[in-house]
Design a protein that fits this description.
- This protein folds into 2 domains: about 140 residues, Aspartate Aminotransferase, domain 1 (Alpha-Beta Complex); about 280 residues, Type I PLP-dependent aspartate aminotransferase-like (Major domain) (Aspartate Aminotransferase, domain 2, 3-Layer(aba) Sandwich).
- The radius of gyration is 23 Å and the shape is globular.
- It contains 15 helices and 15 strands.
- Helix content is about 40%, strand content about 15%.
- By secondary structure, the protein is of the alpha/beta class.
């Protein structure tokens, strides 16, 4: 619930502007405008320091799955802080929450993926996956299997290696990468497939892209393929039917490990705790997850390995040798208790079932936006959705980049009490999974108003919409 802040807003604004470095920040405007201060939250709503109320259409950052201000979660975290707030997970030490959460995750994952390594975020989960994969092949004596295949428009994180795997080139500006290690193939962007190509033909072409790249690099040099079941920050790109199952078969053929990056799709966003098997009909070798694992209440991630991988990496290299990978906060007991409580709340409140029931309604309502002349595509699944904006629906031509059209629409939505996420020419929605049909109706109504309001802006810019 909104309440009067106990701090001076102007002081907080100034302290933040003068001392905080924010991710993905436009410094040309930030130094003048500073930050919007978010001070309170409740369910699917957040409040700014002025008391204004917003539906959080982006769920924090794809992560506040159970909603804000959950008292059960707060009490569980507080209790754990009193009992033991921290102890190292290195070597022969653990805490009850770390052991219990690992065991619980093993009941939710497909196949034999039941060995869990904890971290504090998706970037670390993906870095860990690759480091373990390299170690795995070293233990097998296949020391050349190092190269990683990812996809254009993929997002896998912001550490050096995770950003190298990320295929969103906008994020690479001015930063270095590891191009000899990471290689990209085209995204399976069904909406932008060539004219006249069926979805089945497109799937064939994208599967061939992977096989061709493995052959080009040499199977003896390729360690893994990493893929999001539905690509998130690259524009909520849904692959053609059968894509993941068939790319997994290609990986099996060439002894390439398959990493399913479920940092976004995991923990209910598509109606299941993990989407790889129930939604996309394949079992990867490794699953990485974060975000919804704790619903954003505390930093937590997991890299979940198959027994086949574990059986190799757990054999000592020689007497006294250690598995020398880990972090200070691996298996952090308070974060792990948040993960356990999060799963308990989701199961008790049948949140995955709610998403499977309400998600199709959300998709259908959002598709009513097609009536607007600049809406080219409405895509996604359940509580992971995207609206792509175009100048011409037939040619799928984009509007001029300088307009920053998605940002303009996001500003219109914000003025009406809704946060959406603008990504270039796309408006993305990933709200808390507790959103009701009534709240969905409000979200869609605000979007309709915002798209209607933006049409005169385009006319003033002299832009013709077809």
């Amino acid at each position: 619930m909104s309440s009067k802040p106990t701090y001076d807003t102007k002081t907080i604004w100034r302290q933040d502007r003068d001392h905080c470095i924010h991710p993905w920040t436009d410094f040309s405007t930030f130094k003048k405008e500073g930050s919007m201060i978010m001070s309170n939250s409740d369910g699917a709503y957040v409040f700014d320091s002025e008391g204004n109320k917003y539906i959080d259409g982006i769920g924090g950052l794809w992560c506040v799955n159970i909603g804000y201000g959950n008292k059960e979660m707060a009490e569980a975290i507080a209790k754990q802080v009193e009992e033991i707030p921290y102890y190292l997970n290195f070597g022969a030490h653990t805490t009850p929450p770390a052991a219990e959460l690992a065991a619980k995750l093993a009941t939710l994952t497909p196949g034999t993926l039941d060995k869990v390594f904890f971290g504090t975020g998706g970037s670390l989960a993906n870095d860990t996956a690759v480091r373990i994969i390299h170690f795995y092949f070293n233990r097998l004596g296949q020391h050349n299997k190092k190269k990683i295949i990812a996809r254009t428009d993929a997002y896998h994180g912001s550490t050096y290696l995770a950003m190298s795997m990320t295929g969103v080139t906008f994020n690479h500006q001015g930063f270095d990468l590891a191009p000899d290690l990471v290689h990209h193939i085209p995204a399976p962007h069904t909406y932008r497939r060539p004219d006249g190509m069926t979805e089945s033909e497109f799937c064939n072409a994208k599967v061939k892209d992977l096989e061709d790249k493995i052959i080009e690099l040499g199977p003896e040099n390729v360690a893994c393929f990493i893929a999001e079941p539905i690509m998130g920050a690259g524009g909520v790109i849904v692959p053609p039917k059968g894509y993941h199952k068939r790319t997994k078969e290609v990986c099996n053929k060439y002894e390439v490990l398959y990493v399913s990056d479920e940092v976004i799709t995991g923990f209910g966003r598509l109606g299941h705790f993990f989407a790889s098997e129930p939604v996309f009909d394949f079992v990867p070798d490794i699953i990485t997850c974060a975000k919804g694992i704790s619903s954003g209440y505390l930093p937590l991630s997991a890299t979940i390995l198959s027994e086949d991988i574990y059986d190799v990496i757990s054999v000592p290299q020689n007497e006294g040798a250690l598995f020398t990978h880990g972090f200070t906060y691996t298996g952090h007991p308070v974060s792990c208790i948040a993960g356990l409580k999060n799963i308990e709340i989701m199961e008790k409140n049948r949140i995955c079932e709610h998403v499977r029931e309400v998600g199709p309604y959300f998709e259908a309502q959002l598709k009513t936006l097609y009536k607007h002349p600049i809406v080219g595509d409405v895509r996604g699944s359940h509580f992971m959705l995207c609206i792509e904006i175009v100048a011409d629906k037939e040619t799928k031509t984009l509007l001029p980049e300088h307009l920053d059209i998605a940002k303009l629409i996001a500003q219109q939505c914000q003025s009406r009490g809704l946060f959406v996420r603008p990504i270039r020419n796309q408006v993305v929605l990933s709200p808390p999974l507790i959103l009701t049909k009534q709240q969905i109706d409000t979200v869609v109504s605000i979007l309709h108003e915002s798209f209607t309001e933006i049409t005169p802006v385009l006319s003033r810019e002299g832009i013709a919409i077809n």
